[in-house]
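BUG: 3D viewer hangs when loading the predicted structure for this chain

Environment: internal workstation, default settings.
Expected: structure renders.
Actual: progress bar stalls at 90%.

Input used:
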Amino acid sequence: MRGKHRLTPRIDDRLEPRIVLSQGIAIAPIAVAPLNASGRARALNTAAIQSINDAFDSFSRDYMTALGAYFNGGEAPAGESVRPAKDQYARYVLQRIDLLAQELTRTFSHLPKATRPVAGAPRGSIVLQVFLRSQITGTQPGTLRTNLVGSNFEDNAQLLPAPGGEENIASLYTARSLNAVETARAATTNAAGFLLRGTFKHGGR
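Structure tokens produced before the viewer hung:
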């Protein structure tokens, strides 16, 4: 009677590479496509634009409320100056511009290159700060601040019509102010796009 033969598995040779079939047909290795960042850029751009619009929409509502309250406040009593009312309006607008700048800072901080130093700007300045000073908070001509309240309270007192005056003058001032807000919105939206494309440059303003 023959004895039982126990099969003992044994590997005599190394396994052939898995990318080759037993018939000898080669399988091309899996090609790993380079990371496409365009999807992330689009998502960042969409989120940034939405955040920017939300910030400016909120600012416009608050600004129009303050301006309406000022114009509807009526004329100053005889012998009294309207300067206190003008200064109060200016203080509120300046505070609201500062809040807008804070909201935009949070939005821009998520964008690439927003916190990089800017060559030729004051020491320590980053792209975000340079943009805000040149378009929103700065006291030079053309910023949102100077377009709405001037560079100081004296400028505002001269720019802002007195309450209780002619309606067409108030309407013209309001239209000009809203145009300044929309100009700042457009500049901010464009700056976000430039940052995402890596083309934002200090304009020397």
